[in-house]
Amino acid sequence: EPKMADNFVKSVLGLLALFLFQSNVAYQVGWVLGARNQRFQQRHSQLFSAKSQPPQTTTQSSKYLKDFENQYDSFFLDQFGVIHNGTHAYQGAIEAVERLAQRGKRLVILSNSSKRKKTGVKNLRKMGFNPDHFCGFVTSGDTVYEEMISRAREPFKSLGTRCVVFGNADDDKAYLSEMQCELSTIEEADFLLARGNFVILDAVETTKCDRSLESEARVAAVLAAAAARGLPLLVANPDIARPGCGSPMPGVIGKQYEDMGGTVHYTGKPHSSVYELCFQALEEDGGNRDRVCAVGDSLDHDILGASRAGIESIFIIGGIHSEELGIKEGGRECPSQKALEKLYARHGGGVPTHSMPAFVWED
User: Which tens digit of pLDDT belongs to each residue from 285-311?
Assistant: First the structure.
């Protein structure tokens, strides 16, 4: 009996050692994969969370949008990285939108742009898109504006009117004025607003920002002063990196402030409020919430947001993750299924229902 007990103890210890070894290996592999591209690093806790929910293996790949013609009645379309690059429409995107509209599909633009709807519509028209093809146009910037004007619910109801702004260096002052808010010093501010990474605006000065260490130090100093006062940060664009150049977006500021212990309120994908606005746009146009598909290029925003909203999704491969996949942004190259599965596993935010190289109807 003592011998049997001794063998039993050895077996238990052996199993425990094997478990700890495998856990350590899993951690190391997850860390290495996440560190391969600093713009898309995930916290190791998120990686383990992804492991607890095995990636969906039924993602269907297709080259053309026409393959989904009979599967969906409505589409939520991302802008940057899907239909245009900020200045020009991608090849085939204008035709794809026209074909969907001709077939009676309801289209809603759903963008993390921090600008107002009116600016987005104007830009689409300038690039050659017909705004009449869209029954709704939802941007995170317009959503923040509407919420701040109505002050009907938290956190907007209690934010105050005086703020320091991380801006886009374009329409920041006009946006703030329309929202009935004003610039303030950090000592007198009620909140911080992040809608860009190009300037810091307060009541005294406008400071340009770039990707230098000096600029990073300025941003960190503003955040530290705000955290010391317990100010909330309102992020009007949760994106992390800009398609094409990889420059940081306001979501980076949000993550940095969270790491300091600050309170952050995000508006935009993957958060629920903007999806509810899209569904409302469909219903106002005579549609419903059935057979809806979201199209986007960000796994962490478009695909995760669609999953949370309970709708299917199409992942556009040649967008924000193109560099990570080693392909040309805006092109039609399709990586191997194995490469895509590794990408989904690294991000762990959700696996798309379908994937396409680019937003095109057909060749």
Answer: 999 999 999 999 999 999 999 999 999
Rounded Cα gap, residues 76 and 108, in angstroms: 5
CA 343 to CA 292: how far, in whole Å?
25
Half-sphere exposure of 44 (CA within 13 A, CB side): 11
Within its chain, how far is the Cα of 107 from the centroid? 19
Asked if 200 and 222 count as a contact pair (C-beta separation under 8 A), the reply is yes
C-alpha dihedral, 148 to 153 to 159 to 164, nearest 10°? -40
In the chain, what are the helix, strand and coil shares in percent, each to the nearest 5? 45, 15, 40
- For residues 337 and 105, which has the higher predicted lDDT (pLDDT)? 105
CA 11 – CA 95 distance, rounded (Å): 65
Contact criterion met (CB below 8 Å) for 360 and 93: yes
Q: Centre a 10 Å sphere on the Cβ of residue 198 and count the other Cβ atoms it contains.
A: 16
Q: How far apart are CA 260 and CA 37, in angstroms?
A: 23
pLDDT in tens, 209-260: 987 778 889 999 999 999 999 999 999 999 998 766 667 899 999 999 999 9
Torsion, CA 274, CA 179, CA 256, CA 220, rounded to 10: 170
Alpha helix ranges (H) inside 179-249: 213-229
The helices-and-strands tally (H runs, E runs) of the chain is: 12, 14
Residues in CB range of 118: below 8 A, 6 or more apart: none
The residue count of the chain comes to 363
Task: Give yes or no for a contact between 162 and 189, defined as CB atoms under 8 angstroms apart.
Answer: yes
Whole-number Å distance between alpha carbons of 299 and 269: 11
Tell me whether strands 162-167 and 199-201 are parallel, antiparallel or unpaired.
Answer: antiparallel
- Given a cut of 50, is residue 15 above it in pLDDT? no
What per-residue confidence (pLDDT) applies to 244?
63
Neighbours of 243 (CB within 10 A): 25
The rounded distance, in Å, linking the Cα atoms of 227 and 264 is 11
Query: In the chain, where does DSSP find H-type helix?
Result: 2-35, 44-52, 93-102, 117-127, 140-150, 172-178, 213-229, 250-259, 272-284, 304-309, 322-325, 337-347
